[in-house]
Write a structure and sequence with these properties.
The chain has 205 residues and is α/β, with parallel strands linked by helices. The chain has helices spanning 17-25, 47-55, 74-86, 105-143, 161-176, 182-189, 193-203; strands spanning 3-9, 33-37, 61-64, 90-92. The chain has a 4-stranded parallel beta sheet with strand order 2-1-3-4, with helices on both faces.
Length: 205
């Protein structure tokens, strides 16, 4: 049985120190912590997460400082948790009771699964409440004539010149480089595959 940690922040200017300190308290050594500075918007772009999922074995225990380090929404969190359980490993986080001392792996996994099911339900309900409040706010703004819609980060009218250059590069590759896949274009442009699809569907009709 190995103790494995995963730590993530969303941008390069953020610090992993607090999460790593939490993982150290669980007795996890630095060489067993998978660390990355990348948005949680997509799983595809998270190289260290995928490396961690490939590394874990049956009986291992995976520690994270908070469940939202695994993903930004209940769907992604649930998918990653399922991948951990499929490998026969257990997930531990301060937000949930610690079942790591239960000697029976099957019983440990069962209790963890029950708690995670409750958490995922709560997270999904909170997401629905947030979306409902957002819709209400938009409707109020529209009725007052002040709603302008969400700003487009990558587009011909992007605020930042570098974001406009990224958009131009993606559009050019989508039009001229038929041999490049969406994933390859995303990697070359330094953005997510979802963003490439959004540009394609919005600007190349």
């Amino acid at each position: 049985m190995a103790k494995i940690g995963y730590a993530r922040v969303s941008s390069k200017d953020q610090n992993l120190a607090r999460q790593i300190e939490t993982l150290h308290k669980y007795g996890i050594k630095d060489d067993m912590i998978f660390k990355e500075k990348v948005s949680g918007a997509t799983i595809e772009a998270r190289i260290q997460l995928k490396s961690m999922l490939n590394f874990i074995r049956k009986g291992d225990i995976v520690y994270v400082a908070a469940l939202d380090r695994l993903g930004r929404n209940a769907k992604d969190i649930g998918y990653i948790i399922q991948q951990i359980h499929t490998k026969g490993a257990t997930l531990i986080t301060p937000e949930l009771p610690d079942f790591s001392q239960i000697p029976n792996p099957g019983l440990r996994a069962m209790f963890t699964e029950m708690m995670l099911a409750v958490f995922k339900y709560q997270a999904e309900e909170e997401r629905k409440r947030i979306k409902a409040r957002q819709r209400e706010g938009i409707e109020i703004a529209k009725s007052n004539g002040v709603y302008k819609g969400r700003e487009i980060k990558y587009g011909p009218n992007a605020k930042k010149p570098q974001d406009k250059l990224v958009w131009e590069s993606v559009v050019r590759m989508l039009r001229d480089s038929k041999s490049l896949s969406i994933r390859q274009i995303a990697q070359k442009a330094g953005i997510s595959e979802r963003t490439v699809y959004r540009i394609k569907n919005r600007d190349l009709k």
